[in-house]
Amino acid sequence: MPLRLEPSFRERLAAADHPLVGMWVCSGSPLLAEVAAGSGLDWLLIDMEHSANTLESVLLQLQAVAAYPVTPLVRAPFNDAVAIKQILDLGAQNLIVPMVSSAAEAEAAVAATRYPPLGVRGVGSALARSARWNRVDRYLQESAQHTSLTVQIETSAGVEAAADIAAVDGVDAVFVGPSDLSASMGHLGQQTHPQVVAAVETVFAAVKAAGKPVGVNAFDPAAADAYLAAGADFVAVGADVALLARASEGLAARFLGADGSARASY
Q1: Contacts for 78-85: CB closer than 8 Å, 24+ residues apart
Q2: Is the pTM of this model over 0.85?
Q3: Helix axes 55-65 and 30-37, enclosed angle (nearest 10)
Q4: What's the CA gap between 112 and 84, in Å, rounded?
């Protein structure tokens, strides 16, 4: 039974008439993932690096968002062939690999997404949701057409190697992480420090010169606007847990006051 998988993030970027705007899903909750999927945003990033997400919870979230016209990406916990194989076998078509600081590391990520002889991905399509249990015609031969790989530059070394990273065949897009980048540059917690912003824009220029899309993480609306104006092709502008944290704090401030003194009147 031939099946057509959803367009990949690579295809979404190529067809887009506007920069793609997305958000993180870090809670591990399929319910919150579904809420976010119906928001009207272009893409969601289900994170396995800085969250409690497991393979099982990622699977449930992929299933929850499948009914919506949003493109889900999954961030691997690290650049590891086994972790990447398992995520892809779950049916994730769009992968983000963190902490890529050299062309060699980018090449390793590409190899992990591809079957031999082009890579090292283990063959388990008959057992996996990725090929819909061998219901996708020629999945083994054409899997690269169904998947996309975004690598994340988050260090000073990655900034210096950005052109070489972007030039790697099989890297479909580059995503810049200002949080870790700021720490790498000696400006921990200062994602909008002028030197950090300049480094991000250096990556933008190098990646665009290589003909690849480039994106950035920017929860600060002013920073997001500035990066969009600087040519970002995609941007992450929030996270489920951060939105809940700030909104619940707002409720507390509104009804309890800064010091909680309003409790006495209830």
Answers
A1: 78/49, 79/105, 79/108, 79/109, 79/112, 80/112, 81/108, 81/111, 81/112, 81/120, 81/121, 83/48, 84/109, 84/112, 84/113, 84/121, 85/112, 85/121, 85/122, 85/124
A2: yes
A3: 30
A4: 6
- Residues 172 and 170: their CA atoms lie apart, in Å, by 6
Residues 6+ apart with CB under 8 A from 14: none
Beta 71-75 vs 234-239: how paired, if at all?
A: unpaired
Active site residue 146: no
CB atoms within 10 A of CB 166: 24
Supply the DSSP symbol for 102: S
In a structure prediction context, what are the per-residue pLDDT tens digits for the chain, which is 266 residues long? 455 678 999 999 999 999 999 999 999 999 999 999 999 999 999 999 999 999 999 999 999 999 999 999 999 999 999 999 999 999 999 999 999 999 999 999 999 999 999 999 999 988 999 989 998 889 999 999 889 999 999 999 999 999 999 999 999 999 999 999 999 999 999 999 999 999 999 999 999 999 999 999 999 999 999 999 999 999 999 999 999 999 999 999 999 986 656 654 44
Q: Who contacts 48 (Cβ-Cβ below 8 Å, separation ≥6)?
A: 54, 58, 74, 75, 76, 77, 83, 87
Contact present, 130 and 58 (Cβ < 8 Å)? no
Structure tokens at 115: 């079957």
Which of the following is catalytic: 50, 146, 187, 193? Answer: 50
Closest CA relative to residue 104, chosen from 154, 150, 143, 158: 158
Distances (CA, A) of 22 to 41, 97, 145, 219, 234: 6, 17, 23, 11, 8
